[in-house]
Amino acid sequence: MIKIINQFKMELLARSSNESFARAAIAAFISQLDPTVEELSDIKTAVSEAVTNCIVHAYKEQLGYIYITVRILNDNKVSIKIKDKGCGIPDVEKAMEPLYTTAGGERAGLGFAVMESFTDKLTVHSAVGRGTTVIFHKQLQTR
Amino acid sequence: MQCSIFTSGNMVTAKLSGELDHHSAKSIREQIDCEVEAVQPDKLFLDFKDITFMDSSGIGLVMGRYRLMQLHGGEVIILNPSPSIRKVMRLAGLGRLAKIETSA
Ligand SMILES: Nc1ncnc2c1ncn2[C@@H]1O[C@H](COP(=O)(O)OP(=O)(O)OP(=O)(O)O)[C@@H](O)[C@H]1O
Ligand SMILES: [Mg+2]
After folding, report:
1. Which domain holds residue B94?
2. A27 lies within 8 A of chain B by CB
3. CATH number, domain at B45?
4. Which tens digits make up the pLDDT trace of A95-108?
5. Among B40, B48, B56, B89, fewest CB within 10 Å belongs to which?
6. What is the DSSP annotation of A32-64?
7. Which residue of B29, B55, B61 is in closest CB contact with A45?
8. Ligand of minimum distance to the alpha carbon of B63
9. What is the set of domains in chain A, with CATH numbers?
């Protein structure tokens, strides 16, 4: 049985200056679970990837909002949902392949690979023209 | 985010500090590229000692500088990444493009 112990939602304009704010706000909320330094850094990195993707890819053409929901679940689990109403991804499986990028140049194509390896479970839903939702779960050590 | 650049002979060192993400990468990239294009050094050192956070934008930054240095046959050397930054670099296999060194 999954129980929601605590929850936090925020809505941010997709500006790159909000990348560090989103990481810091989520890290502060999760700190109530007393995570290890490594757990916190893993979560911040995964959040940064998802938020940056909204800014760089989803809202490349027109500015919009990023919707974030963070839940603290029973048994020291955290779930984080990061959603946009941007351009969407035509082929999610392909987009998630390491080194795949549609941006070229300065992007490594590793955002999804980082989210996958730094969290315990990653789910991506997307529809072209409607937007993308990324959800990841992280099990924290019980201390 | 701060970036100080020192040049000595045919070596350029960029000392970075703060959080390296998509937002901060742009100005760092411009500063480094400006110096590298002018000096065409044999070695470009990127000092990560005071970087407190990095995501895949940092990987993109290193990969882009690697390509730039390759144009004139130079190499990139990464200095002093913290354990959490090493973890991202390892995932990306950055060690294949640049030497990663830690000074005492
Ligand atoms: N929220 C999104 N909206 C639209 N397209 C997306 C979104 N997130 C990812 N994509 C697509 O998936 C591709 C892969 O994303 P991923 O984060 O793995 O790499 P990247 O963002 O291109 O590079 P990096 O994250 O290494 O800087 C992107 O190039 C883009 O085409
Ligand atoms: Mg990305």
Report:
1. 2-101
2. no
3. 3.30.750.24
4. 999 999 999 889 99
5. B40
6. GG---HHHHHHHHHHHHHHHHHIIIIITSSS--
7. B55
8. 1
9. 4-139 (3.30.565.10)
